[in-house]
Amino acid sequence: MPILDPNSVEFFSKSSDQTKRLGSRLGTSLSVGDVICLSGNLGSGKTTFVQGLANGWGSLDLVTSPTFVIINQYRKAGGGILHHMDAYRLSGAIDAIDLDMDQIISTGALVIEWPELIRSALPQNHLWIDLTWVNEFQRRIVFTAKGIHYKEILNEFRKKTFGG
Fold first, then answer.
1. Cα–chain center distance at 121
2. Which end of the chain is less congested by CB atoms within 10 angstroms, N or C?
3. CA–CA separation, 79 vs 75, rounded Å?
4. Cα gap 109→81, rounded to integer Å
């Protein structure tokens, strides 16, 4: 787990369960307005990570890939919504803007798969997570914070995950 710089953390997950646990630890830190971007090829573990994220956040709902519906919403006990967007089928940033991303962000946390396809529609500050398939059992996951709020989330995540 080398620390790349104060704004990034690199981790090698050795199983889908470990990827879910990482997501779960991050999910405990999410609040309304947070934007998490998950970048990675097919099979890199994006939806698996979101399953853990939603669990840590307190989701009452089963997490599934939103590929064909574009956005899934997961409810939280006591109120709150985790929005899960898949930008793969969008034709670009204009489609994302037409979905009223500002409104979505104002009502809950937003996790976006394939964010590189709508980069110009993303808020300047967010947490970017790159997932890379290494082999059948291993994924490289790099977390990069953009903005002070996300640096704080990343530091909290680092403490929960690695101690210190």
1. 16
2. C
3. 7
4. 7
Token representation of residue 134: 């290494």
**Amino acid letter for position 25:** R
Rounded to two decimals, what is the model's pTM? 0.91
The label of the residue with tokens 């398939």 reads: 133
pLDDT tens digits for range 112-146: 999 999 999 999 999 999 999 998 889 999 999 99
pLDDT at 51: 95
Helix (H) or strand (E) holding 82: strand 81-86
Q: Which two tokens stand for residue 145?
A: 């914070």
List beta partners, residue 5.
Answer: 8
Using CA of residue 9, residue 7, residue 53, residue 97, what is the dihedral sign? Answer: negative
Residue 47: C-alpha distances to residues 1, 14, 53, 69, 90 (Å): 22, 16, 9, 14, 18
Q: What is the mean pLDDT of the chain?
A: 90
